[in-house]
Amino acid sequence: MDAAVGAGVDEAAQVGAFWRGLGLPGLIDVHTHFMPERVMDKVWAYFDAVGPMTGVDWPITYRDAEDERVRRLRDFGVRAFTAMVYPHKPGMAAWLNSWAAEFAARTPDCLHTGTFYPEPGAADEVRRAIESGAQVFKTHLQVGAYDPTDPLLDDVWGILAESGTPVVTHCGSGPVPGKHTGPGPIGAVLSRHPQLRLIVAHLGTPEYAEFLDLADRFTHVHLDTTMVFTDFTERMAPFPPALRPRLLDHQDRILLGTDFPNIPYPYAHALDSLARLGLGDAWLRAVCYENAARLFAGSPAVRLLGRDSA
Fold this sequence. Notes:
The chain has about 300 residues and is of the alpha/beta class. About 45% of the residues lie in helices and about 10% in strands. The longest helix is centred in the first third of the chain and has 18 residues.
């Protein structure tokens, strides 16, 4: 598998060969995007325009209709995935949560995903989403351009920590730094809520060492592999080889994420990029399936697998 391989009919066989070779029943991808159509169209328009901002073209490999994207993940053998939604202004979170609940209801292999924004009533909305079945949340500090230490969010983080509900957070400064990105702001949240099951998206690109430091300090911090180690990201924010032993140190808290469908290369390349790290089959099994199966063992999507824990 390599980045030159197109997203064609053979890719499902390539992906299947990867996880079958590890003796896994499939993959669990904690960082995939399904959104209302008009929101997804705007996201794709953003990536279409990101080239002039960053100097790097970002073609969308899987710019397909929703049902085709779901089918493709299933063909790949992705047994459970997410519908990462995130608001960029007040008033969006409740609407996105309603849509995500409906999507999860008609897509049983999707982990019911929620989101929030710093606005009055945010804690009530998060509590309502959890009561309606949300199993994971997504928050994007870069796109939302808000401070995670905003007092309007303190009860939100507390509810998530107390309930043990994981939250995937884009808090690293890639691809373009934001006012509230980097390890400092989210680190302050963790200091107040050390039981928070935070999943650092993109392994904190480009502040890899700093976010691994947070994982050292806080035992409930996880990191996802979204786009890290791929040829695309290695050109912009290479992962230092000297840090690879720390990936083994945190083998039980690293999760497969891909950013499907918004990736500028085939899905198979993301998996190949993990394999070529040379960290061994046990590491790959943990990252690509076992850790997420354990973290989301109580979720309907993972229970459907017939294997609740690793």
